[in-house]
Structure formats: structure tokens, C-alpha cells
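note to self — DONT lose this again. spent like an hour looking for the file last time. sequence + predicted structure for the chain T wanted, 367 res
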Amino acid sequence: MAVVANFTSTRSASWACGFLSTTFWKTHRHTVEPCGVDLCKTSSDKRVEGRVEVRQPLPLVVPFRGKKRHFIPPAVGAKGQVQADPEATARARGFVLQQQYMERSINISCTAGIFDAYIPPEGDARLSTLSREGLKQRTMQLKQSAASQLAIRKIKEYDPQFNTRTFPELAQDIFIQAHMALTEFNKEKLHILLTERCYPEMTRGNRYKTIRWRFVESLEPPRVVHARCPDMVSKANLYGQVTLRMHSKQTLAIYDRFGRLMLGSEEEPKDVLEYLVLERHVVNPYGRWRLHGKIVPAWAPPKDPIVKTVLIPGPALRSGEEFDPLSVEVPKPQAVQWSNSRTTSSSQPEDRLVATLTLAEGMPALG
């Protein structure tokens, strides 16, 4: 009992006795000396000698890398069982699963498309306004311009400086700056001049290509042919879309990553008739007009084909061996030798088969 009383009187001694085994207690009932200190001494002796310092050993951490299992096989006999509802299982265990919403993020700085797109009349820039068909198209445009006039009035409520006479020059300047930034692939300037919808359409597929573009002159002054003021999400969130008709001369040349010409020419200018759509978030006081898209009419002529560079597989080379184009032999077509008509009937099918195979190997591939 004395040993127990002495241990309970001192906190450090009781903590130190936790490291001792039960067999050690049975063999040493009267005196226990962890760390070389007699724990059965009186309290006056302990004050003289000081406190017992017992240090706990630091944990040993050994880092190791386990095997990553990309496929966990199903449990045995779980193939025919019906899987339970995970939400019901979680509720039974006291957990609450958060509902996952399949939402699609939208960008309110621009719209996702062109609202009520302008339909260019067939034969535009080819028919004269003095001809009979040209006058019919002109009267049709005047009838369809009623909705555009209402949209222009609504745009002027938020942008008092908007004017259909001065806007075509501004829009043409935005068009030229955007294409010049595309040739240099200036991302910062492209994001300023293009909307979030138009940016991927203009830059897609141009990573390993070289573009040479130049604006030569305007064949006709640009003019506004269409205007709409749609809303998105709410009636107060308005956007202004203006369609511009631009007839000009341009040069375009596209080179691949090997420096070979794929499309166009840098010296030969071509007449280009384009219908550009510019958009602005009119509710935003800091918004600006940006290039939003282009309308391609259904009667437009097809584009020129693109000349692609294709890699022709060469001979298999060993390590350290260099390719010598002079040592490569181009396979030539083999001569065709027809069988003699006086041969026996038993040998005629074999000779014809040999002649047919030889002819097929010697003929060049079509297409």
C-alpha cells in the first residue's frame, strides 16, 4: 500500500509507471526506480533532488508508396444483385448527400448566337439598283427595315452616340484591327475586339499556321443593313446587334508549319463581300462594340480547297543510320506477259491468273 500511496502522490511518478510491465511490478513491489530515481522516498527528499524528467520517444515516420489500383474488381456474387439507392443508404447511416446540379455556366457579357439573323438577298453586289430585280430587292429591304429602326431607337436610349452614318467606319476599323491582331496572334487585343463567342471561332486551328492578311481597299462604302436589340435572362438585360455589309478587296495567304502555302496568295487581291455582326452589352456603361460573328449566305460560292502537306513513310532506318535519298529506289511497274493462246486447257487458268496479278501490280493507283 505504501508503494501505491507514493505513486498517487506524485503525478510524474504515476505517469512514469505507465511504461512498466506487470511482471516488473511483481518482482519489485517495494522500490521502483525508473530513470535511476527512487520513487519510494519521502516528499522532502523529492524536493531536494528535483522533479523527475521523463521524455516520450518521438514517433518514427517511414514514407512509402502504395500500389495505385486503376481498376477495382467487383465483389464476389455482386453481379446479379440489385444496387441499393445510395441516398437511402446514406440516410440510414445518418449522412446527408448534397444534391448535384447539372448546370451550364453562361457568360452575360455577350450572347450565345445571332438573334434574327439577316438574310442577304441573292445576287447582292452583282445586280444594279437601276435594274428591275435590283429595285425589287431594294423595296424588300425597306419593308424589312421597320424592325431595325425600332432596334436602333432602343440602342440610342442607352448609347446616345450611336449613329448609323458614323458606325460603319468604326465597325470597319474594328474588323481590320481584329484581323491584324489575328496574324500576330495577340490574345490580349483579340479579347478586346472579339466577343467570347467569336474568339474560339477565329482562333481555332491556327496554332501551327502562319497567316498573312492585308486590307487593300473598299469597293463600296460599308453600311448598316440590319439591327436587333434582344434581351437575355431578363427584359432589362439588353444587347445590341448590328449587321454591317462590307464589300472590299483583301489578300489572304495561309502557310502550314512547314512554310508551305495552303490557301490564297499574298500578291493577288480578291473581292470579298461580307456581312459582319457586331454586338455590345448596351446596359453596361463600360461596354463596347465587338465583332460577334459573320453571316455566310446560302448562295455563296464554295471556298477554295486547302492544299495539305502529307508525310510519305520512308524506309526503316536503324539507330545511327542517316537517310540517303539517292539510295532509295522508286518501285517501277513490272512488265505484263500474257500467256500463249495455244497452251493446253489445263494450264490456261494458271497462266491467266499470273497475268492478271502481274497486271494489277503494274497498274498505277487511281485517285
